[in-house]
Structures are given as C-alpha cells and as structure tokens.
Amino acid sequence: MGKILRRKDIQIDEEPVRPKKSKTTDTALKLSSCEKKNRAELALKRKEQILQAALRVFARSGSKQATNQAIAKEAGFSSPALIYHYFTDRQDLLVQVVRRFHPIVHFLEEAERQDLDNRTFNLRNSLRKLAEALSTINQDREKCACFRVIFGESLSHSSILDKVMEDDITNQITGYLNKLFTKAQELGIIRRDYSAMQLAYSFSGLFSVQFIHVCLLNQADFKLDMDMQIDCFLNGALAKDV
Question: What is the 3-state composition of the chain as percent helix, strand, coil, each rounded to the nearest 5?
C-alpha cells in the first residue's frame, strides 16, 4: 500500500504577503525628494546672493557702514538674521567673500591639468599665465575696494588675518608652483640644487607687490612688467645649458 501523506508532512512554500504600496505614499516620497532638492538649490542661491551683496556693500560703503542690515537689504532679504543661517559670523563671511571672488581659484583648476603635461610643458608661458591671472583682480575696482576693506579688518583682527593668509588659496598657488618647478627640474630646465618650494614662495611674492599697491594702497597706476619680472626671476634658476 502506498504511503498515506498527512497534512503535516506536506510543506507548502507560501509567498510572504507584501504590503501593497500606496499611491499616496509614493507621491509623498517623490514630493519629499523634490522638496529637499528645491531647498538645497534655494540655499545655494541665497548664499550666492549674500556673497554678491557683501562684495558690493564692502566695496561701496567700507567696513563700518557694511552692516548686516545693509548687506541683507542689498541681497533683497527683509531680515539680516538670515545671513547667520549661511555664515557662522562676520569673520566667516569675510573669508568666504575672498574665497568666492579670488580669480586664481578658477585658473588653477585648469592649469594643473594643462601645464604639467610633458609634451606641451613650457615653464615661461605657465608662469606668465599665472601672473596674468593674479593681476586680473587689480583690474576690477569693486573687488579691489572690497578686498581693501577685508584686509583692513584683518589688520585689526588677527583671527581674520590668520584665516585669510592660511586659506586654501595661498596653499593652492604655492602647491601649483611647486609642481611646476619640480617638473622643470625633472626635465632639466632649472637647477636641481634649488628647492622647488622655495622657488614657489619667491615667485608668488613677486606679484604680491602689485596686489598690495593696487588693491590695498589704492594706487591704480602702479604696474609691473610681467615679462621682465619673470626673466629676472628665471635668470638665476635656469640650468646652464638652457
């Protein structure tokens, strides 16, 4: 006789019951995602508005008159308290204005990709392009006026000066120059017994002179001959057979 199968001997694989997704829930999730994206975009837009407004107010009114109320009004906000939603304090705002409007930041992003290629490497041209990028700030009266205010406050408040001087911008410039001079040493263009980093500091110092005269001392007619400065700088650094 065949084996009698009892109900308990039969294993039935039942598919677990999954809760049906509610259309309302899906819609709510999508709305939540869109809302987060919109809020993030609005935050970036407002922060940029404040930075642009701060640049104009600092340039036009100077430090004492550049109140949060004036900056908020320039940005189109009714309450100056909104500034502290995006910036921790006035010092943070000042430093971020420098970061946002310093022309060298955008230049360095492209320079490292293009100028360090062995096939097209040209030390003199790379230095000239960097010098031109550094000098563009001197041609913008609004930025010059704004930076004059910021550096003026830096002299009165050492904490601001420390942040401005130790900012990523300074490190990026010397870092790029260090790579440039290291590559030139590898290719036998400049002497290997010189420190690439010391050369980087020396070169960036040359064009700080023009920045100080034009931006900080407001001497608009002060100019340096870039080609002559580069020639003088490289005169002692080039290898003998170059």
Answer: 70, 0, 25
